[in-house]
Design goal:
Number of strands: 0
CATH class of the largest domain: Mainly Alpha
Radius of gyration: 20 Å
CATH superfamily of the largest domain: Tetracycline Repressor, domain 2
CATH architecture of the largest domain: Orthogonal Bundle
Number of helices: 11
CATH topology of the largest domain: Tetracycline Repressor, domain 2
Largest sheet: none
Strand content: under 5%
Helix content: over 70%
Shape: globular
């Protein structure tokens, strides 16, 4: 791992633990085996480092989503793959999810700026448009209801993250012990996909949609 990569890795852990305001360059330096001067040489400021950590994380997420939506596959398979990806991604990156929530809690200006810069720099990042085209194709074939792709995407994102964010609350409200909570978490993607598809796909004659 290069010095730059080590700094980014240590910075990601520091920002997840303390946020932008609470993060300390000295701890980042200690975490990557470099000194503060080296960090400033590569990244100029803590704010630039923070923006790059967030940008790198979202760049990877966007590429995965684009790959799923762009695949030549039936709509149902894409929706199920997207649900699986989001649930798995949030489950394995709870720190990133906490960082996003803490950023949004203080207004989300930095997060919004990073995403605008990212999507402006890499024009291929139009997975909402790709999802819209996928749904439109289904509508032209008479298989898909008239649904707004933006609401579809936000429903997918929200349903995929809610249990992870509110797991302690959900355990109490739903009366789940730890083993049941683990099983419930693993079942989430399938249930999310079922709900979305039930709302997206037109009912077959004699069917229950």
């Amino acid at each position: 791992m290069s010095t730059r990569e080590r700094i980014l890795d240590a910075a990601g852990k520091e920002f997840i633990a303390h946020g932008l305001a609470g993060a300390r360059m000295q701890r980042i330096a200690a975490g990557c085996g470099a000194n503060k001067a080296m960090i400033y040489y590569y990244f100029n400021s803590k704010e630039n480092l923070y923006r790059l950590v967030i940008g790198n994380a979202f760049s990877g997420i966007f590429r995965n989503i684009e790959g799923i939506i762009g695949e030549k596959a039936p709509l149902e398979k894409k929706i199920r793959a997207l649900a699986e990806f989001y649930v798995k991604m949030y489950s394995e990156n709870t720190g990133l999810l906490r960082l996003m929530m803490s950023e949004i809690a203080v207004g989300g200006e930095v997060l919004e700026g990073v995403l605008e810069e990212l999507t402006g720099r890499i024009r291929d990042y139009d997975f909402p448009g790709a999802l819209n085209e996928t749904l439109s194709q289904g509508q032209r074939l008479g298989a898909v209801r008239q649904v707004d792709h933006r609401h579809t995407l936000m429903s997918l994102v929200g349903m995929s993250s809610i249990f992870i964010l509110f797991r302690p609350v959900a355990r109490v409200v739903l009366s789940l012990d730890e083993r049941e909570a683990e099983r419930f978490a693993k079942e989430r993607a399938g249930h999310i996909a079922d709900l979305l598809l039930h709302g997206i796909l037109k009912a077959e004659k004699g069917g229950d949609r």
